[in-house]
């Protein structure tokens, strides 16, 4: 669903199908209203209405820098995409961290 939301925000298309590993999973899906094991779903069927996709980089990926610590400062990059106004917003936040936070994050670069 995350990939479908991101692709829909970018104006792309995606198709997907549910895969059931056993009869218990199929029965559970039937109880939730799924009636066709082999149905191929479109992005519009998977993600209905206006969609917002938000991602924060933990490691360097998709042209975004992962979480970095510079002394007492923590730098975080995120992206927000929205279907309503077809916007893509990049956010770069810097926070001052306390000494306790530094024990949980390490900058190994």
Automatic annotation (TrEMBL):
InterPro entries: FBPase_class-2/SBPase (IPR004464)
Reaction(s) this enzyme catalyzes, per UniProt: beta-D-fructose 1,6-bisphosphate + H2O = beta-D-fructose 6-phosphate + phosphate
Keywords per UniProt: Carbohydrate metabolism, Hydrolase, Manganese, Metal-binding
Gene3D superfamilies tied to this protein: 3.40.190.90, Fructose-1,6-Bisphosphatase, subunit A, domain 1
Lineage top rank: taxon: Bacteria
Any Pfam family the entry gives: FBPase_glpX
EC number: 3.1.3.11
Keyword Manganese: yes
Similarity section: Belongs to the FBPase class 2 family.
Protein name: fructose-bisphosphatase
Native source species: Candidatus Xenohaliotis californiensis
